[in-house]
Amino acid sequence: MTIAVLVGAALAYALGMRRAARRGTSWPAHRAVLFYTLGLGSYAVIELGFLGTWSAELRWAFVARIALLLMAVPALIALGRPLDLARAGLADAGRRRLDSVLDGRVFRVLGNAMFATILVAAAFCVFLTPLAGVLRTSPVIGEGIGVVALTVGLLLVVPLMALTGIHTTTFLAVEFMLAFVELVVDSIPGILLRLNDHVVDGVTAATGAGWWPNPLRDQHLAGDLLWFIAEVADVPILIILLVRWGRRDRVEAADFDALTDEEHDALVQAHLRGIHRA
């Protein structure tokens, strides 16, 4: 399944660059390099490397794998700006349809820090339940969950990096503050895993090589990694929100500068009337 995802994504991106070139858009080479090396490369390393190979046996490998696929890999894939590439390869009608979808209610919800905080925290809380043991030890679910985690992460990160939706400066300020709250919320499941003195996923049989940690130590390592990954992965989100906030501020400043003296005076008077009424 991992190979199919890699090949499919690589071909889709290449076809997107070809369509963009046919429409007269020269796609920046550095974006393609970022997409193939950091984006698809990180996905391949995680799924085909140590974490993907031993996630069924090692809790910390499973937790690190899912956390990275959910929070880190989507951000690296988004550096290649796949949505911008899709827009560049579409005709005017197709571009308008894509923009209408991205500006719709679903992607407005997905592309903000408020929803991401709740969803990621809920996903990490699964590691505190016996369901984590079922997901980790099932061969079929174990492979499919990697694709699911990556898909969910992309649905959260790509719209956010595309800076879709029109938000007021106040809304963006609230969203930015909630992103700081996320720094605390995301760390709670990792802390609870680390502090628990009994195995929470119900799989207590020690298997594998002699150098592997015992189940409880394995769980503590998983908690440490989950805490670390959640904190580090939130930093790019804060940077994205700062960029979005700056862009919105520039748009509002340009709109204000475009006002005539009469329009400016009318706006000031309307604001003052609102203050007096309050």
Element layout with pairings:
Blueprint: H1 2-22, H2 29-48, H3 50-54, H4 59-78, H5 82-88, H6 92-102, H7 105-110, H8 113-125, H9 131-137, H10 139-161, H11 169-185, H12 187-195, H13 215-257, H14 261-277
Can you offer a commentary on this structure?
It is built from 14 helices and no strands. The chain has helices spanning about 1-20, 30-50, 50-55, 60-80, 80-90, 90-100, 105-110, 115-125, 130-135, 140-160, 170-185, 185-195, 215-255, 260-275. The model has no long low-confidence stretch (mean pLDDT about 80). It has one domain.
What's the gist of this structure?
The protein has one domain.
Distinctive features:
79% helix; mainly alpha; 278 residues; 14 helices; 0% strand
What is the percent of helical residues? over 70%
Tell me the count of domains.
1
Distance between the termini: 61 Å
Q: Would you report the number of β strands?
A: 0
Largest sheet: none
Instruction: Count every helix, treating DSSP H or I runs of 4 or more residues as helices.
Output: 14
The dominant shape is globular
Mean pLDDT: 78
The string of secondary-structure elements, in order, is HHHHHHHHHHHHHH
Strand content: under 5%
Radius of gyration: 23 Å
Low-pLDDT stretches: none
Structural class: mainly alpha
Q: For this entry, what is the oligomeric state of its chains?
A: single chain
